[in-house]
Design a protein that fits this description.
mainly alpha, single chain
Amino acid sequence: ATIAGEQTAAPETPAWARPKQQNPIKTLLPLGILYTVRHVDFKADPDAIFSLRACFAGAFLLALSFSLYLLYLIEAAKDARTYTVDGEAESYYIHDRRHMRQALSGLVGSFVIACGIHYKWHMYQPLVLLSCQVLLNFSDGAQLQLVKAYILKSHVDRPFGAEAPAPAAAGDAAKEGETPALASTAKKGGKDKSAKKSKKAD
């Protein structure tokens, strides 16, 4: 029986089920800088193109150094705590290392692509955009969560919000209008109730 005036606390939404927060600065700032330098003739001005290349190389080296430092902190900590999604457990260390390696591979890949476009077609736009974005990547997503966890020493839930459970579990939960974790709980509760009713009938 429910006591009058008693409120039942709503179950906490898992980290992966929370909406991902987008950082508008990550999109608007590079576009604003690109709009500002649109009148600069980088092809005709050697000093301007040298400055742009230097800024691009500096931003990339700074982002790469910081990413490697984060990876070093993850390897040094080797956080043995675990989280569970759909019955499968994974350590914080494996989870964080996977995200940091993905970020590093994306950083190196974007650098190679931007350099290839600039060398092949002499376009300056990729250098301008990536000079900002490689640093702004630390302002949201998994990289921001890793900065909070290992630099700021804040509590960060795993898995990160961008992750989702297995597609089958997500589909079942969507049909029932519940998150997979809550759906599995509800199914277990339904089985227990049906079992109790069958015992009473006997």
